[in-house]
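go over my protein:
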Amino acid sequence: MNLKKLGAIAVTGLAAVMLAACSKDTSNTDVITMKGDTIRVSDLYKEAQEYPTTGTTTLLQNMTFDKIFEKEFGKKVTTKKVEAEFQSQKTSLGTQFASALQQAGYTETSYKDSIRSQLLLKAAVNKEIKYTTAEYKTAFETFHPTVDAYILSVTSESDAKTAISEANKSATDFDKTAKEKKAEIKFDSANTQVPDEVKAAAWKLKDGAVSAEPVAVTDSSTGEKSYYIIKMIKNSDKGTDWKKYKSELKSIIETTKQNDTTFVNGIIATYLTKYNVTVKPTAFATIFSAYETTATSTSSSSKASSSTKASSSASSESSSSTASSTSTSESK
């Protein structure tokens, strides 16, 4: 679960520390101005009280993005959608949910605000995605349709090896244990609840087969390892017709683009420009530099591409003109 508010740069420390540079300013002093809105010192202090362990840079980014995307996509991100996402993540973590919130510095209310921020950004990103045939075919290359499997997780490699040995000795007993533990899962390659390492190992198994070795997965946030035992119930062959899975592939394309930092930052940069976002105190002058850099790079690449195309077009026209003077068939 992503327990982070919207914002690409994480900086530790309280807002009050950075605001020392603005010690002469009053609570009504502008920190950031934009088309139709303003963020003042008092707004920043209020946000810092809500998220006391979040750095000033991230707070200001969050506040700015929220104001912009709320205007653009607020009507699309309903309370119902936020609640559904919240409940999904709560169910996924189960009894660990409360501690995960606490460790990340959230209450249930503030985390719902975070989810809303994330959904607003997703709406902005999804609006810019081009669902071309090429994109669908690329997604299809690594796509695997829904399979049905037993997936058990243990904390030690020795326990995992013992479970595999027992599964090979008595399939009936293993299946009974797996059912009791509600270990049967149906998933495809777009599933985010099953670790990628487990999915990759599962695709290789034939119906009724058990993974030969435990699949080790390291938790990126804690560094702890878990070991998975997989038994395939029903595998699937995707065939060659990607159009059969257009809905699933669309979801994969969206996830890929949402995780593409360059693509996302480029979109954010266009909105920063559209809303004429201006940072007033010099202490915060560089908080949007990552997005400005992305915009500049994207613009340069676009110009270079256009120049290449123009040159290619001119060359093509010249060649075509020369060819037409010697042979009508060649000019075609």
